[in-house]
């Protein structure tokens, strides 16, 4: 009888541990989906910012025209920073998109931003990664 009790207890502990591991796996998978959704929303906001005003050659005009979208991106904090840094790493382009990404990164980093003077988004990124 004592042996049967021990087997039952060990079995219950094993089942509980398996259930807990499955819950952790599901939570991690859910966070990955959420991060992907947030990254898509960040990309959407970025695309909206760089879409207008098309008559301007000043990148700051694009940000000023879309304060809500820019605030959303900056509000995403570390997630947006990581997403933009990975986007910089994927390409070597240096246009309006990169400028707005760099501007958002500097806002997110705040006083932790090590780069004070930069003229292009790519220049900011190249200095930042060093």
Q: What is the compact description of this entry?
A:
The protein is mainly alpha-helical and 130 residues long. It is 78% helix and 0% strand. It has helices spanning 2-51, 59-65, 67-75, 78-90, 96-109, 121-129.
Describe the structure.
The N and C termini lie far apart (67 Å). The protein is mainly α and 130 residues long. It is elongated. The protein is built from 6 helices and no strands.
List the helices and strands and how they pair.
Layout lengths: L1 H50 L7 H7 L1 H9 L2 H13 L5 H14 L11 H9 L1
Distance between the termini: 67 Å
The secondary structure category is: mainly alpha
Overall residue-averaged pLDDT value: 85
What would you report as the Rg, rounded to the nearest angstrom?
Answer: 23 Å
The major sheet is characterized as: none
Query: Which ranges are low-confidence, i.e. pLDDT below 50, for 5 or more consecutive residues?
Result: none
Oligomeric state of shown chains: single chain
Overall domain count: 1
Alpha plus pi helix count: 6
Helix proportion: over 70%
Shape estimate: elongated
Which keywords apply here?
single chain, 130 residues, mainly alpha, 6 helices, 0% strand, elongated
């Amino acid at each position: 009888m004592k042996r049967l009790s021990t087997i039952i207890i060990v079995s219950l502990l094993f089942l509980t541990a398996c259930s807990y591991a499955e819950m952790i796996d599901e939570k991690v998978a859910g966070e990955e989906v959420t991060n992907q959704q947030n990254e898509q929303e960040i990309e959407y906001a970025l695309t909206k910012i760089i879409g207008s005003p098309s008559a301007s050659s000043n990148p700051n005009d694009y940000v000023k025209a879309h304060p809500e979208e820019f605030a959303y991106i900056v509000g995403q904090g570390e997630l947006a920073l990581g997403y933009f840094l990975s986007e910089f790493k994927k390409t070597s382009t240096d246009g309006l998109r990169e400028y707005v990404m760099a501007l958002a990164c500097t806002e997110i980093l705040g006083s932790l931003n090590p780069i004070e003077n930069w003229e292009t988004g790519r220049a900011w990124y190249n200095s930042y990664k060093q």
